[in-house]
Amino acid sequence: MRPDDQVLKSVIYLESDLNFKIFTNWLGGCYAAGVNRSSAIKDEVELRWNQGQCQALLLINKALTQAHEELRARMAELEKNQINRNG
Asked: Taking the model in full, what pTM does it have?
C-alpha cells in the first residue's frame, strides 16, 4: 500500500481537524488491541486473520500519521534522481 501524493496531501490537510485526530487515535487503538489479542489466540487460522488485520491497520495508520515524512522522502528521492540524471 503506497498512497499517491494526492492522498498524502489530503491527509496533511486533514491533520489539523480534531475529528481526524480522534479517528487516527481510534485506528491506533484498534491496532494495539489486535496485537494484544494475538497472544491469547490458539486457533492458527484465527491468529493469521488477526495478524492480517493488524498489518492492514498498521499500514493505514502509518499512511495517515506519517504523510509529511513520506512526502518529504519522495521529494528527496525525486531530487536525487534528477541530480543523478543531470550530473
From this structure: 0.75
